[in-house]
Specification:
Layout: E1 3-6, E2 10-13, E3 18-22, H1 36-44, E4 52-58, E5 66-72, E6 78-82
Antiparallel strand pairs: 1-2, 3-4, 4-5, 5-6
Length: about 90
């Protein structure tokens, strides 16, 4: 089983976590003024990067906190995790 490092709880089983999608996507400020195309692009258009990818994860079966991770989509290896404020907690398993 893959182990993921929560910045608060340490290494835990992958089954405790929920993937939250691509990180660093800013929500539009005034969604009422968006066209259907713009809203659809915000909701559904994501990069499908091969290699290192910035992601959001939630420790759903633990502390329930969100954190950011840099993960290789080819090897599935986590390179580092950080709290939402950007403080990197070091290399992850």
């Amino acid at each position: 089983m893959l182990l993921i490092e929560c910045p608060w709880c340490g290494l835990r089983a992958e089954s405790e976590f929920a993937y939250g999608g691509q990180a660093d996507i800013a929500r539009p400020l005034d969604t009422d003024k968006l066209t259907d195309q713009e809203w659809g692009d915000y909701l559904f258009m994501r990069k499908n990067t091969r290699g290192l990818h910035d992601e959001q994860w939630n420790h759903a079966q633990g502390c329930r906190r969100w954190f950011n991770a840099k993960r290789d989509t080819v090897s599935y290896q986590f390179h580092c995790v950080s709290k939402p404020d950007g403080k990197v907690e070091g290399d992850a398993a």
